Amino acid sequence: MATNGHISFERELDAFGPITLDEMKSVKLMNRVDAKFLTSETGLQAVLADAAAAGYRVLVTEGDRRSPYDSVYFDTPGLQMFLDHHNRRLVRQKVRTRCYVRSGQAFLEIKRKNNHGRTSKKRMAIEPFEMMEFSGNAEACAYLAKHSWFTAGDLRPAVETLFTRITLVNPDLTERLTIDTCLAFKNFRTGKEVSLQDAVIIELKQDGRVHSRMREIFLEHRIKPVRVSKYCIATTLTDPSAKSGRFKLKVRAIEKTIGKNL
Fold this sequence. Notes:
Elements: E1 2-3, E2 6-7, H1 10-13, E3 17-19, E4 31-40, H2 41-53, E5 57-59, E6 67-75, H3 80-86, E7 92-100, E8 105-113, E9 118-126, H4 138-147, E10 156-169, E11 175-187, E12 193-195, E13 199-206, H5 213-220, H6 230-238, H7 245-258
Parallel strand pairs: 3-5
Antiparallel strand pairs: 1-2, 4-9, 4-13, 5-10, 6-7, 6-10, 7-8, 8-9, 10-11, 11-12, 11-13
């Protein structure tokens, strides 16, 4: 079944047992090792069938198995965080606000990657109306200054990302899989908007190098790891003035995967 040109995955998700947010607490993986994978919506259908057979469970929140997300990435006027990633700086940060659309919960989040490839995330709750501008929240400003290299005065909203997420958890509760579909971006600097059409970005999150049946499933379907950042892809596609030569190769990989030009 397709909705708005996208596959709904309802039939595939019917094969999964549910997991609740409370049960998910043991797999928060706030300090984790990430690996990302790229496929199409039709490729995802095959992955979901094998994942259900392997005993993975799907997160159900408020009766739904697919959750809309709204994120705003912040950067300096000179796009320091974007350029740190483009220039392969091993130790880097990203700052964003995120809203879980159905619940209305919003957070300020600081993601840090160290030189060993491990990602840690710190976050605090904010009000949804502070998604674009949290400088009036003294607690949030202090939190940002404590956990990042930046202050609220250094940053401006750069890119908004919208997507729908499916979350899977393995039977041993040692890994979490986030599957992002219907990806769309808006650049606040240029006003340009773009979507990734039927591309799917999958992130496998583990607390260590444990065995992963999902990696075997990806290998069986010839889905390879790819280093891709939604923020960096969004900026590359929506800001012609940004230094993005390295990320254009990622865009070509997405286009090859879905068989369409972006």
